[in-house]
Please model this.
Amino acid sequence: MEYFLQQLINGITLGAIYGLIAIGYTMVYGIIGMINFAHGDIYMLGAFFALIAYLAATTMGGGSVAFGLMAALLATMLFTSLWGWAVERLAYRPLRGAPRLAPLISAIGMSIVLQNFTQLTQGARVKPLQPVIHGGVTLLKANGFAVSLSWLQITIVLVTVALMLVFTWVITRTPLGRAQRATEQDMKMAALLGVNVDRVISTTFVIGAALASVAGLMVTLYYGVIDFYIGFLAGIKAFTAAVLGGIGSLPGAMLGGLAIGLIEALWSGYFSIEYKDVAAFSILVLVLLFRPSGLLGRPEVEKI
Amino acid sequence: MRFGGLLAVNDLSFAAAGRQITAIIGPNGAGKTTLFNCITGFYRPQVGRIALHHPTGVKLLERLPDHRIAREAGVARTFQNIRLFPRMTVLENLIVAQHAALMRASVFSLAGLLGLARYRQAERRAVDKARHWLDRLNLIAQADDEAGALPYGSQRRLEIARAMCTDPVLLCLDEPAAGLNPRESAELNTLLTAIRDETGVGVLLIEHDMTVVMGISDHIVVLDYGRRIAEGPPAAIRRDPAVIRAYLGETAAEDLPPAVSGDVSEADGC
Model:
């Protein structure tokens, strides 16, 4: 029981991170119907920007952790968004109206470019970061096993919940969100009503990148090591989460992220840590077999 | 406007005035919808000019990207096959149509985030305008329903309401009476003339239902094979030999017994 609770906590933390990345996939898919395979690498860039900004800020700011974290958060959101915007502008917008396969290939190309760029400029070795947020609370202690909840885990979950609330509010209540939903449902019609569709799409990429960059910051803090290749697996996992929840559905992405995080944590806790990825992807296969539109996706109804 | 070897709209020129309903009629494939697509920026005509005399100056529509045609030139449009945002509420459909103004007021949602007074006023104005049109078109009770769930006739009315919410100077209606029953299309007639008289908007109307066309048009343009074959007030178009030929065919009209051909031209109204 205690062991289960501990794995539950770990899983929720991991799930929060996957959920943040998955939103980027599902939003872009919803609005232009493409899978942005470079999104995982945008998240990786976010982790690098966070690390660099944190180290720079603590060196200059005299080692204050709080200042360093705020600086890292702002810097990584700013720079990663810029990259997200640039990727859309350079690699996807010129292909608007091209067959669906073209932007997909372009996205894979962009993913390789970002990985290699980071490898060249930052080196191929893993980058370590000393634990920044220490300590936590022990929830209960029984049978010689202590269930602990670290401050860092609490921070990660709280930040994620806050971001998701703000984000949901933007989508449902602001003109920007309304324009996004309109563009998603009928791009041409939205343009005819005076919505600048290109700008709405750019904003979608910027929001997705900003959320992924926060995930990047949190992973850097949580695991303490990053390298140029972390975007690949995290990206695929988050994509799986988006598909599991029903691609195109925002609550679905959050739910899917949570599910993947829990599956991974519980599987590594009870079976074998080596096969945790296999477990996550097997669940995906099962869900898709029985619910092809995902947990919260709406099935495509064909009118006859 | 050319598609490969097909010349869809060729050497067509006509003028449609404000405060008037100009109907565009013609047999299927005459190029009526293509013409609308050129006006609203779906297609870019290879040659020619579409000038709109807007209160703020002359806008050349063939040079504007589609979202600026709605925003700056004030052209709004409805579709033959209804294109509402089906998974948004009726009210939201009308608010999206006022997106440009709201976006300006909210400074990219930033003011919205901070809940500034200026933005809240703009939002209230948008809702008021939407409510005005919902009242007009008898849709107020359905304001919070999903647009896709409305019955067909209401969806048609909602599309007109949404177009009017963009404050257009030119309203392009593509077969607004298609699929309406006689009572609904009579209501449409009253609505369109009322909109014209109250707002002074110029209306371009594509329609096959001749009771609508002959009943409310101030001016009619007849197309066939992408060319204008006749133009004038309804009474003149009804008798125009070129129009009768395009609709009935020359020999076909002669082959029919007099009683039948009389019925046909009466039913067609031309």
